[in-house]
């Protein structure tokens, strides 16, 4: 949804980033892997800057560094040079090559370039099959995961029973998911896994590539797993690794709702329990009970409140599902990029409440128009909504990606019962702060 009037026809303050950024984030979650942005140097610099500001970690992204003549005659020789340099400097085992807007504009064929460069490269080359103009960061993220699973050489020896393909969640979320899966399986694969590469320890010496990430041997064995789980039920098949494995290798694919809040987490744990034949560990039953208790404790603060939820489609769906559980009305649900069946996706996440507006492809200017004349208690989403929240004098609960104006974005937990507790505390404390700030009396009990 984009507001189109004679004085306003373009995107203004987009509520999304581009596909190559999503590719870069996904590739950071693979062991000993590097990404090359095939295009102008500015793309790699911009993406690095954007991600470093959120993750606060060293982050190298290579570029084939187009110049004026490359933009006219094509970037094949630049890509050859980039692949050679990356092999020498970083010694990766896998290089993912993503097209960017400039190389897409001139029609460079990244796939055939990679095929031609493969003999000279010590690292396996994976072209990312997604034009940079299509969709947004979430599409690039999923396209990268699918391209790697599809393009990586395959082994005959199975390792993991289950493949987990999470959405674009935080490193803390990935650690939490891993603990959950480990309670049922001694070996599983989470792809991508940037829980340590983008939220790591201090290094004693410079390391060209951050340690950690999904082991390459597990990616090679993904087609031999018993089943896969992903958390984006309306994802298009062409960028879904789970759908690819099911269609090409008969690996059963379960596409669940995001595991945020009670319902989503229950569904995930129930599936793991059913497939593994093991009971849900007592720890999770206790944590679930504490969460329900906290819902009851906070109900007087949350019930009937109205929120604006914005960000990528999976994030918005997950947060709406959680808000629905705690009695908050997600009055406006806005995805920053186009997403198939977005209305259906959101409606499926809600049991009690009907939002007034569910729109995809929304920029912040359109969101401002949508918010006009509506009573809203808070906004929830990434920090790019801050200028709008400030203008409207509405409290903002920061979570998701990116969080550029606070610390702790990578450590913010959203998934599981633990994530729901974290979200609840944040939202309720934000509402209480507003109440206290607006009061003429210095209440210390609320
Ligand atoms: S030019 Fe295109 S690919 Fe490069 S940073 Fe901008 S939107 Fe992303």
Quickly list its features.
alpha/beta; Rossmann fold; 3 domains; 5-stranded parallel beta sheet; 4-stranded parallel beta sheet; 17 helices; globular
Write up what this structure looks like.
The chain is of the alpha/beta class and 446 residues long. It has 3 domains: 19-151, Rossmann fold (3-Layer(aba) Sandwich); 162-276, Nitrogenase molybdenum iron protein domain (Rossmann fold); 282-438, Nitrogenase molybdenum iron protein domain (Rossmann fold), CATH 3.40.50.1980. It contains 17 helices and 13 strands. A 5-stranded parallel β-sheet has the order 11-10-9-12-13, sandwiched between helices. Strand 10, helix 14 (342-349) and strand 11 form a beta-alpha-beta unit. It is globular. Bound molecules: iron/sulfur cluster. The site of iron/sulfur cluster has 7 residues, from helix 2.
The helix content is: 40-55%
Written as H for each helix and E for each strand, in order along the chain, the element string is HEHEHHEHHEHEHEHEHEHHEHEHEHEHEH
What is bound: which ligands? iron/sulfur cluster
CATH class categorisation of the largest domain: Alpha Beta
CATH topology of the largest domain: Rossmann fold
**Arrangement of strands in the largest sheet:** 11-10-9-12-13
Largest beta-sheet details? 5 strands, parallel
Shape: globular
> What is the number of helices?
17
What's the architecture of the largest domain, going by CATH? 3-Layer(aba) Sandwich
What is the total number of structural domains?
3
The average pLDDT score comes to: 95
Please tell me how large the radius of gyration is. 22 Å
Unreliable spans: none
- What percent of residues are in strands? 5-15%
